[in-house]
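Much of what follows relies on a compact textual record of a protein's fold. The record below shows the convention in full:
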Amino acid sequence: MESLEMRGANRRKLIILVLVVFFTWLLFLQRTRLKEDSEDSYIVEGLGHSRIVPRKCMVPEWNKKTTNSLPHAAEFEQWRTRRIGSHVEIDIDIISIIHSFQHNILDAESRLLSAFVYPDQISIVTTAFHTYGKRATCLYYDCNRREIPSSRFKSRVVPLTVVTCPRRYGAEYVSLSFDDDVESQEPIPLIFRAYEQPVHELSVCVGPLYGPESKWLEVVEYVEHYRLLVSLHVFKKFEIRLIQGTSMFYFTLFNMNDYDRKIVDDYERLGLAESTKYFMEYVKLGWMFHLIQTHECHHRSRFHSKWVINMDIDERLIYNGPNNFIHFMRSIPPTFSEISLSSNRVLKFEELPEKFKSEEQLLADMMFLKYNQTTEISWYNLKGIVRPEMVALLFYHWSCRQFDETKVMSVSKRFAYVRHYRSVDENKLNSNWRTFYNGSLIETRLEESFEKRLTAAVLKRVKYVYDQRMIHCEEIPPWIFNRFERRLLDCNFRNESQIIDNENTGISGF
């Protein structure tokens, strides 16, 4: 009897032990799962409950691609090993000037500026010239910024400050590490450029915006000019806008105050512009970083735009040929990667206004109305319009290395040229250009109907962005005045003087 009772007690103990082990194992498994989920999930809280939602990476179809080689790798390696255009070459040419920049600003940090994913490769643009030719390792990250296992690739910095990397399945962020780096830089997102067909037929790479002179009016004149880049006789015959000109502007913001920045932000709001912001260790950026801007914009426009006009903010393309400029560009054979344009200079004597004051003052300050003393058209400072995916290397405004033996076409000034509003201020870069100019000056203007349309477009855009006023107190319901003190209300009565501080949108004069 006692043995039966002992056996029953032992069985109960065994069952209890088994249950304890079982539930302990379940608890351990659940904690392990919760730990895994916490690393790759987030908690959604609702009314009286919460649930864990896995943050899994959904890879779109276009990003399900891995490549193991680089386009034009042999050409880049040949240029690097032969040091084509390097500073040690005896024969001085434009390429040597470009690559001599690798020995400029020697202590610059090589920061990640931007990265673009194309159909067959990725390009990462960095900010230091002196890294040219050095080894760099491409690092790939998924949507959670986790490095993709076994995905690294050894590459080099070429051309200039650009590192080319192959594609990787599911990569949404990229980074670089150099041989002497202790750790890689924080990854940056890939900008999608894997288009089958270009989104824009004609775009503009706007030269870098830097220096103390105000930029807002120059930006408006520049953008509206290229938007109106159409055939003049088309308007005269049909009196309608059949084909618009440039549809995308790529801006680079070196140093820009808030007031000037408003107009660029407005064009971005309209979907007409993209801008690259430079975050570097230097207080100011100037002309010595122009080549980085040129190549960043060049890679930004690849597969996004078919043709790209490469012009500074004070340069305007003039088209005098048949039909319209878009029609002319469509007539260029596919074997050409660039068309070159001659230019003249229009003497600019004064600084641009700091702020918009009135319509009358704006009309007096518009550069294309105010300045008309012009030099002869020449090839001394040629400008280029390029097919970005067919060009390897640029020198400021035109290409100096093309892919696949493509050709460059020079366009007669009878069809198109560039009108360059060039400052004569002795404190500006290359301001002594008139010392070396031996030609004559003549008075020139834009074509009359184009000038009128441009004037109207500039007026409309400037007034939309900068013609601002204080809120009238009469617009505010009485109950708000009863609830809040006057000093808390940013308003003026209509009979009060209206003074706006455009720098910080504050109020003065109360």
Remarks:
- The longest strand covers residues 336-348.
